[in-house]
């Protein structure tokens, strides 16, 4: 009987359904039953390898292209937990190094295939086909094609897809199918399965914390940048008006003149000799005077930055504020006008001018 079982295990190993470590573990169960095996055999076989979360993580990498077999909750969620932790640490580095999320994006690309592979095996472990993953995407594509712009039906279909995704999450969190199925035997260890439950909770909480932290940091950064922008603008406008109060016009006012006469706050430039002035968004600022008015233009802004600058209450902040010009157009009366003007700008191509007299 033992020989038949051992032959079956060897076949599963040859087909790539189980790893060498899993093969050794099952062999020891068959040969030694519930008895503790000799220390020498335990050390050679390495059956405790999968019980260590880090070794479990490395095992998932070894199975990156193994889409057969099964993955317990401990195996899958241990992999997810460590990836989430790594992603969070890299996001902190992104923030401190101001890399615009480059490292976080890179780790997502690197772990994509191993995660999909582990996810497919997790579905196999609950006795479900991996086709369940494709169903919502196929339905969404099909229904989008057939609905022809019906908002009500589109909303209903979107709701159905969301509910189905919730069902998929439920499956990924479910216990292993207790019997052998066409994908392999149930190799669940009760102790490890309980750890798997903790890893599910830990992964979810860590993800929520990571998203909340990054959102909070982004909001705080935006508030700080807006406050700093107001301070820069207030000093710049005040200095220009004071310098030109005895002059009949603002003719001749430009970046170089403003820097030569010390009108520009020192944190808006690094070189006194050129005409380059930067703003809190990291793009160039252009100062231009003509007749009785002068303008301060923010160049190469994103849509979000465009909205931030153009919709601020400059009338209350500055006496003598004339208006906002977005890409040389000035007919804005309500918020939707600004949204439309900023929305048509291509990526980082909005030019927003604040005009004063």
Number of domains: 3
Radius of gyration: 31 Å
DSSP strand count: 4
Number of helices: 13
Oligomer: single chain
Account of the protein in words:
There is one protein chain. This protein has three domains: 1-47, no CATH class; 50-126 and 174-216, no CATH class; 244-356, 2-Layer Sandwich (TcpA-like pilin), CATH 3.30.1690.10. 60% of the residues lie in helices and 8% in strands. Mean pLDDT is 80; it is low at 34-50. It is α+β, with helices and mostly antiparallel strands. α1 (2-14) packs antiparallel against α2 and α11 runs antiparallel to α13 (335-343). It contains 13 helices and four strands. The protein has a four-stranded antiparallel sheet with strand order 1-2-4-3. A hairpin with a 2-residue loop joins β1 (285-290) and β2 (293-301).
List the helices and strands and how they pair.
Elements: H1 2-14, H2 20-32, H3 39-45, H4 53-62, H5 73-97, H6 102-125, H7 131-147, H8 151-173, H9 190-243, H10 255-260, E1 285-290, E2 293-301, H11 303-310, H12 314-317, E3 321-326, H13 335-343, E4 350-356
How would you briefly describe this protein structure?
With 357 residues, the protein is an alpha+beta fold. It has 13 helices and 4 strands. The protein has 3 domains: 47 residues, no CATH class; 120 residues, no CATH class; 113 residues, TcpA-like pilin.
Short descriptors:
single chain, 357 residues, 13 helices
């Amino acid at each position: 009987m033992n020989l038949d079982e051992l032959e079956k295990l060897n076949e599963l190993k040859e087909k790539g359904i189980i790893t060498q470590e899993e093969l050794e573990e099952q062999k020891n169960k068959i040969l030694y039953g519930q008895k503790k095996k000799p220390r020498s055999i335990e050390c050679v076989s390495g059956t405790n390898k999968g019980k260590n979360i880090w070794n479990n993580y490395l095992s998932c990498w070894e199975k990156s292209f193994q889409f057969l077999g099964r993955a317990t909750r401990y195996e899958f969620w241990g992999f997810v937990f460590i990836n989430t932790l790594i992603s969070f640490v890299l996001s902190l580095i992104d923030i401190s190094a101001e890399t615009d999320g480059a490292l976080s994006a890179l780790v997502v690309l690197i772990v994509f295939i191993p995660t999909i592979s582990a996810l497919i095996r997790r579905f196999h472990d609950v006795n479900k086909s991996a086709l369940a993953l494709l169903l919502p995407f196929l339905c969404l594509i099909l229904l989008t094609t057939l609905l022809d712009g019906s908002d009500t039906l589109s909303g209903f279909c979107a709701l159905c897809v969301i509910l189905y995704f919730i069902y998929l999450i439920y499956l990924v969190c479910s216990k292993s199918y207790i019997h052998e199925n066409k994908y392999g035997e149930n190799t669940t260890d009760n102790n490890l399965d309980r750890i798997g439950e903790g890893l599910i909770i830990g992964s979810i909480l860590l993800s929520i914390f990571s998203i909340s932290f990054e959102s909070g940091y982004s909001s705080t950064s935006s508030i700080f940048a807006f406050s700093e922008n107001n301070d820069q603008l207030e000093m710049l406008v005040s200095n220009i008006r004071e310098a030109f109060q005895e002059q009949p016009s603002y003719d001749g006012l430009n970046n170089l003149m403003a820097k030569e006469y010390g009108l520009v706050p020192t944190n808006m430039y690094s070189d006194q000799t050129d005409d380059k002035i930067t703003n809190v968004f990291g793009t160039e600022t252009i100062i231009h005077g003509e007749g009785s008015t002068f303008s301060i233009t923010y160049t190469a802004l994103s849509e979000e930055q465009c909205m931030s600058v153009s919709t601020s209450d400059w009338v209350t902040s500055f006496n003598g504020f004339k208006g906002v010009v977005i890409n040389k157009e000035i007919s804005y009366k309500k918020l939707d006008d600004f949204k439309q003007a900023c929305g048509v700008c291509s990526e980082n191509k909005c030019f927003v001018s604040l005009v004063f007299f």
